[in-house]
Amino acid sequence: MPFYAVKVGKKPGVYKTWAECQQQTVSFTGAQFKKFDTAQEAEEFVNKGAAVKNLAASNAAASSKPAKTAPAPSVQVKRPATELTETVPEKKTEKKPKFAPPGLVGKTAVVYIDAVCYVKGRCGVGVFWGEDSPRNISEQLLIEGTPTMNRVAVHAAARALRQAKELGVESITINTPNSFVVQSMTQWASKWLQNGWKTTKGKPVTNAADLQELAQEADGLDIEWVLGPKGGDASRLANEGARNV
């Protein structure tokens, strides 16, 4: 009695008739079947096919899974104890003051000056050398002609320079909120002097006498003219001087 073994088909197995074998293999792509004389041989043929199929399936499944990689060994680096405790201090940049503090050191001075001019000619000058300094000046100013803020500021600067010379100062920083004084002494005075105290248009410089006095007091001194600040102790001294009428 023949036995028909279907290794690859619709339903693999051992069949006793050719008709049953055909039902499992007809129209099945890649079908594998074979006729055997004994049932044992037929079953071995089918079982080999199943084993091969299962092995292929397991290999395919294994290849589809991502390979597991062994974790990288952890490496501990021992740092010296000094390195663990050492801290780098933050660098703090000290902001330099915009204006130097007033005072007299040797033959170098820093002063603050200011001027006020009220109606009816009430004017005053202030020269500030430092807190409670005996050199501080608070004076009423009486000038000929029409008093203006610029004229009074020029006289305040001349007063400070005259005082500096009396103290033996050689280098001085003058801080004043009056831009006319600063520009006159840093930009215009040298040109006016060359032109005989006349403007570029040939006209006499306004308040030339006041400016000539300031230029004379500045002669021989190393002077730094600084614009600002407004208010402060020099302004207070100037106001106090103006009220002493």
TrEMBL record:
GO terms for biological process: DNA replication, removal of RNA primer. Residues 60-75 have a biased composition (Low complexity). Pfam families: Cauli_VI, RNase_H. Keywords: Endonuclease, Hydrolase, Magnesium, Metal-binding, Nuclease. Residues 105-245 form the RNase H type-1 domain. Its EC number is 3.1.26.4. InterPro entries: Ribosomal_bL9/RNase_H1_N (IPR009027), RNase_H (IPR050092), RNase_H1_euk (IPR017067), RNase_H1_N (IPR011320), RNase_H1_N_sf (IPR037056), RNaseH-like_sf (IPR012337), RNaseH_domain (IPR002156), RNaseH_sf (IPR036397). It catalyses: Endonucleolytic cleavage to 5'-phosphomonoester. Its cofactor is Mg(2+). Residues 60-97 are annotated as: Disordered. Residues 88-97 have a biased composition (Basic and acidic residues). The keyword Nuclease applies. One of its GO terms (molecular function) is nucleic acid binding. Belongs to the RNase H family. This is ribonuclease H. It comes from Ramazzottius varieornatus (Water bear). The gene is RvY_12703-1.
